[in-house]
């Protein structure tokens, strides 16, 4: 009985110590990792449906509240209205115009491979999959195979290949549905291309585009396993 009582007291003491340590931890220890940021296209914007609304118009206070909320990964704050709205982003939900509010978003971390391009992230995935499985993998991360629609994005993706010394990776361009009718992964017709004409063959077994370390594109067999790029909307 004495031993049991001693164990109980020790257990209570250990629990009290844990509670005391947690109470003394700085605010950052309770916060989700990552940086909240805004941009010009997020000024006078907020999201349609808030998790909660708090009575503060101060950005730092609003950010602290959001960082401690288990679902919050974005917030909009209005100093004029003295309001702070907390949000959980849902893929496909776009910001709406609302004067005096500025929307802040929890940025995915560059050290995890996510790079910002406009209102999207792009990422080179360091695993080899066929094009169909790569597309599904992108979808599971909230995006799609990267539809390269301009030279700027093409060069940014190429730089990731250079950083990793990788020879090629799938992008979101294919003519799988109709031969010689190349479209982006979002189904729109291809308006920008950067084919290496020495590696462009209109063959029925080469229906997917790969970006190479030179920055040029080549035709590839969609069933071959390659690295791949995803483009992931922030919203």
Topology:
Blueprint: H1 2-24, E1 35-37, E2 43-46, E3 52-54, H2 59-68, E4 74-78, E5 83-87, E6 96-107, E7 115-117, E8 120-129, H3 131-140, E9 144-145, H4 151-164, E10 168-174, E11 183-184, E12 208-212, E13 217-220, E14 226-233
Parallel strand pairs: 10-14
Antiparallel strand pairs: 1-6, 2-6, 3-5, 4-5, 4-6, 7-8, 8-14, 9-14, 10-11, 10-12, 12-13
Which key terms come to mind for this protein?
alpha+beta, Hepatocyte Growth Factor, eight-stranded mixed β-sheet, 235 residues, 2 domains
Order of helices and strands: HEEEHEEEEEHEHEEEEE
Q: Mean of the pLDDT scores? A: 87
Name of the CATH superfamily of the largest domain: Mannose-Binding Protein A, subunit A
Given helix and strand content, the structural type is alpha+beta
CATH class group of the largest domain = Alpha Beta
Q: For the terminal residues, how far apart are their CA atoms?
A: 60 Å
Structure overview:
The chain has 235 residues and is of the alpha+beta class. It has two domains: 76 residues, Hepatocyte Growth Factor (3-Layer(bba) Sandwich), CATH 3.50.4; 123 residues, Roll (Mannose-Binding Protein A, Chain A), CATH 3.10.100.10. The protein contains four helices and 14 strands. The strands form two sheets. Strands 7, 8, 9, 10, 11, 12, 13 and 14 form an eight-stranded mixed beta sheet that branches. Strands 1, 2, 3, 4, 5 and 6 form a six-stranded antiparallel beta sheet that branches. Strand 7 and strand 8 form a beta hairpin. The protein is globular.
